[in-house]
Design a protein that fits this description.
Length: about 290
């Protein structure tokens, strides 16, 4: 059975119980969430998040695993402003501890952006930051997300991710989140040659290192470096390619998480509707 779900919210008053109910309402058997708002460092105490109730609900519906995404404000690659790097290390350490306490073994992280200092300087900074975080946290894995390459993002190529792996002493606790939109926008041909792309990844890092897939179509042509997600069937990757990835035999047990855009609600002007129930059913179908 494939593991497929989506990003879900975690809002008052139900918090994690609400996340669990949202995932189940979509027909999901896995899910991804943030531990709080991705744009800031404000976090509620775990005791206030209805974790036990949420896990009971998930287990009642056959869901055993969750994935957590680190907030966007973490930038381990920033050498221009040391205070940004220090904040990133401190908060990522807390997020990794928080993720494992919430029952997730995987914390997804955007590697970072060098903000003009250059790839080598940014990569060294990421390696330093990850080494500090992993040394401070005895449990949990950090999954580096493949990036589209907009601006000064690091992680647009598999070689850039491999360089991070090579530098981190505790790289046995690193993994990769393979985002289909990002990889496509970075220039890899996952539409016509997914197995070839995976073969290249396998030689550099190892396909066993892929811990999560983000399943997103792309609003832009391959190699655009723009990172604009499209709904399933509505982008340049297309349904057939995404369906094949979701059902690929080598990754049957790996969680696939949708992050596609919400749609306008035709009955409520200015409001939106989740596409996830429909898209999960489409991708699950044989």
């Amino acid at each position: 059975m494939i593991l497929i779900g989506s990003h879900v919210g975690m809002n008052a008053p139900d918090f994690f119980l609400g996340s669990a109910k949202e995932a189940v309402s979509y027909g999901a058997n896995t899910l991804m969430l943030y531990t709080g708002a991705p744009q800031n460092t404000k976090r509620r105490a775990l005791k206030d998040l209805n974790m036990d109730e949420g896990w009971t609900y998930l287990h009642e519906h056959g869901i055993q695993d969750i994935v957590i995404h680190a907030p966007y404000i973490i930038n381990l690659a920033n050498t221009v402003k040391p205070e940004i790097f220090e904040l990133a290390v401190q908060f990522l350490t807390l997020e990794l501890k928080r993720s494992t306490a919430m029952g997730s073994g995987i914390l997804i992280l955007h590697p970072g952006a060098h903000v003009g200092a250059g790839l080598k300087a940014g990569t060294r900074s990421i390696v330093k930051g990850l080494s500090e975080v992993l040394s401070a946290c005895p449990e949990g894995f950090i999954a580096l997300e493949t990036m589209a390459g907009k601006g000064s993002e690091i992680g647009r190529t598999f070689e850039e991710l491999a360089a991070i792996y090579d530098g981190v002493a505790e790289n046995s606790r690193l993994r990769v989140c393979f985002d289909t939109c990002h990889v496509h926008d970075a220039g890899y041909d996952i539409v016509h040659d997914f197995d070839g792309v995976i073969g290249h990844f396998d030689r550099l890092i190892g396909k066993d290192q892929i811990a999560v897939f983000h399943i997103n179509d792309s609003k832009n042509e391959r190699g655009s470096h723009k990172d604009r997600h499209a709904n399933i069937k509505e982008g340049f990757i297309g349904f057939d390619a995404l369906h094949a990835i979701v059902h690929h035999a080598d990754f049957a047990s790996i969680p696939k998480i949708l992050e596609t855009p919400y749609r306008p609600d035709p009955k409520r002007p200015g409001q939106t509707l989740s596409p996830y129930k429909e898209e999960i059913a489409m991708l699950r179908s044989l």
